[in-house]
Write a structure and sequence with these properties.
alpha+beta; 2 domains; 8 helices; rod-shaped
C-alpha cells in the first residue's frame, strides 16, 4: 500500500518515534507476517474515534475487506529511511486488484451490449415479418388472408350479346358465332375473333339513332373505298367482291333506295332492312352492313371472298334486335361515326 494512506502514515509515525541512533531499514518480512500486521492496523483504524471520512485518515479505496489478527502472530518491527516519507510499504497483494476489477467491468459491458444487439435483431425480424405478411398471423391455418381482395363480378350479357347468342343457335347460322370467340365491350359493342373457318374477325356495334348509325356506315365505307363514297352500284355476291346496295329479308338487294331515305325512315323494312358494302382490299374481303332494327352496324373480314359471303348470308338474316333495346343502351354518340369500327389487324 502507499505510504500516504492511513496505514502507511501510522507505520511511518511508529518508525520515526524510535531512537535516532537505531538504523532505519525497510521492512523485510514474509507475506504471512505482513498480512497479519495489515489486519491488526485495519482493526485499530476502525476503532479509532478520530477516524472520520474526508480526513487524511481515510482508508485507501483499493482496500475493501478487513481481516482479524490471527492468533499467535507477532507484529514485525518496521523502520524507514531517515527523511523519506514517500516509502511504499507492501502488505501482500491488493485484494481485489485493479486489473481484475477492470476485466470484470469489461466482461459485464460486453454481455450487456450482446444482449442489446440480440434484442434489436429479434425486434427487427418481427417488424419485417409483420410488414411482409400483414394480418396473416392472426388467422388460423387455411384461413383466407385479410389482404385478399374479392373478385370483380362478371358483367351480365348486354342486349346485343344476348341477340348474338341466339343467332349462333339459330337453324341457319348454328355454330358460326360461338360466344367463346366473342368479347363484350360495354353494352353496345361485341368483338369476335376467328369465329368460323375463313373469318378473321367481326365487330358488332349499336347506335342510339339511325342518323348515328348511317354516319358510322358512310365513314367505314369511305375508309375501305379509297376515301370515296358511292351507293347503289354492282352487288355483293359470292362471285362479286365490290358493290353497295340495300338488302331485305326476302334475300333481295334493291338499288332504288338511297342512304338519305333510309335515315329519314321513309323505307319499310320489307323493302329495305339495311344496306351492305363489300370490297376486296388489303388482302381481305370486307363486308360492312347495317340493320335498321336495333341500329346495328357490322364489319366482317376474311382472306377469301366466298368464305366471307357464305358466313355473312345466314348471320345477317338471323340477328334479332329491336329499336327499343338499341335506344335504351348508351350506344355510340354521333361523334363516333368518324372512327373505324374494325378493331383487328388483317392477316
Amino acid at each position: 500500500m502507499r505510504s500516504n494512506s492511513f496505514f502507511g502514515r501510522v507505520l511511518t509515525d511508529v518508525a520515526r518515534s524510535g531512537p535516532a541512533s537505531s538504523p532505519v531499514r525497510r521492512l523485510t518480512t514474509d507475506t504471512r507476517t505482513a498480512r497479519s500486521a495489515s489486519r491488526l492496523l485495519m482493526a485499530i483504524g476502525r476503532t479509532t474515534p478520530a477516524f472520520t471520512p474526508g480526513s487524511y485518515h481515510v482508508l485507501d479505496s483499493d482496500l475493501k475487506a478487513s481481516w482479524q489478527l490471527e492468533a499467535g502472530t507477532s507484529i514485525p518491527q518496521a523502520a524507514t529511511e531517515a527523511g523519506n516519507t514517500e516509502d511504499l510499504i507492501e502488505f501482500g497483494s491488493w485484494i481485489p486488484s485493479e486489473r481484475r476489477r477492470r476485466a470484470s467491468y469489461s466482461r459485464a459491458l460486453v454481455v450487456a451490449l450482446a444482449a442489446f444487439a440480440i434484442s434489436a435483431i429479434v425486434a427487427s425480424g418481427l417488424i419485417v415479418k409483420a410488414a411482409l405478411h400483414p394480418g396473416t398471423a392472426t388467422y388460423p391455418a387455411g384461413a383466407v388472408s385479410a389482404s385478399a381482395s374479392p373478385k370483380a363480378p362478371k358483367a351480365s350479357p348486354s342486349a346485343l350479346m344476348k341477340a348474338l347468342i341466339v343467332t349462333n343457335n339459330s337453324a341457319d347460322a348454328k355454330g358460326l358465332l360461338p360466344p367463346s370467340s366473342c368479347q363484350q365491350q360495354g353494352s353496345d359493342k361485341v368483338t369476335c375473333t376467328n369465329p368460323a373457318l375463313g373469318i378473321s374477325g367481326v365487330v358488332f356495334q349499336t347506335y342510339p339513332s339511325l342518323n348515328a348509325l348511317y354516319n358510322a356506315y358512310v365513314a367505314e365505307l369511305t375508309s375501305l373505298n379509297s376515301g370515296k363514297f358511292k351507293e347503289n352500284f354492282n352487288d355483293c355476291q359470292s362471285q362479286v367482291t365490290h358493290g353497295e346496295v340495300a338488302w331485305n329479308h326476302l334475300f333481295q338487294h334493291p338499288k332504288i333506295y338511297t342512304v338519305n331515305q333510309m335515315v329519314a325512315g321513309k323505307v319499310a323494312d320489307s323493302k329495305a332492312a339495311g344496306r351492305v358494302f363489300c370490297n376486296y382490299t388489303q388482302g381481305n374481303e370486307y363486308m360492312v352492313w347495317t340493320q335498321n332494327d336495333g341500329h346495328l352496324l357490322g364489319v366482317v373480314a376474311g382472306p377469301v371472298n366466298s368464305d366471307v359471303w357464305n358466313w355473312w348470308l345466314p348471320i345477317h338474316q338471323n340477328i334479332g334486335l329491336s329499336n327499343s333495346s338499341a335506344s335504351s343502351s348508351p350506344g355510340a354518340a354521333t361523334s363516333k361515326a368518324s372512327r373505324s369500327t374494325r378493331c383487328w389487324s388483317p392477316p
